[in-house]
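Quarterly update from the structural biology core.
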Amino acid sequence: MKFLNLLCLLAFLFTFAACDDDDSPDGPAEQNVISLDGTNVDLTQGYYFQNLFELDQPDSTKYVFLTDGGITVVDGEFEGTSTNGIFLVMKSDNTSSLTDGVYTYSAEDDIDDIDAFQFGGGVLVNTPVDDIFSDEGGAIEGGTITVSTTGNNRTVAIAVTYGNGQTATGAFIGELIVVE
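Predicted structure, tokenized:
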């Protein structure tokens, strides 16, 4: 009888130990959602601006705008009234594309002074379109952005801080619409 009890106990322990923790993430915690200090915002559209400010020469500064779809970009212009999301200013290691990798926050005021694989700014957007570049939604103050590519889809995983230690985490997985 003791042997049967021991066998049952061992079977239970092996079964329990073999099960993965269902709460442990295998990738970004949420896909196409950003959690702004506990409030979830769906990210339904992603835009990639190769040369947002129409500079005469290629630049390694890249702009990524992930939004809930409250606005769209048509012919390089924002259309709509308001949106929620995140706007990122990132420094790639080349002038032709946004390179996959981990980008860390830099507190430099001038984007030209930051190194490759850093992002020198960005804002959490919760505002009318006219004020898209204001810090009203929350200027990013630290963290990392991880970019990867699978086929035509880009993954932009977000783990940043803003405001008084508030956090924004999540990910956009999908095609980034290139805005010329």
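The chain has one domain: 29-179.
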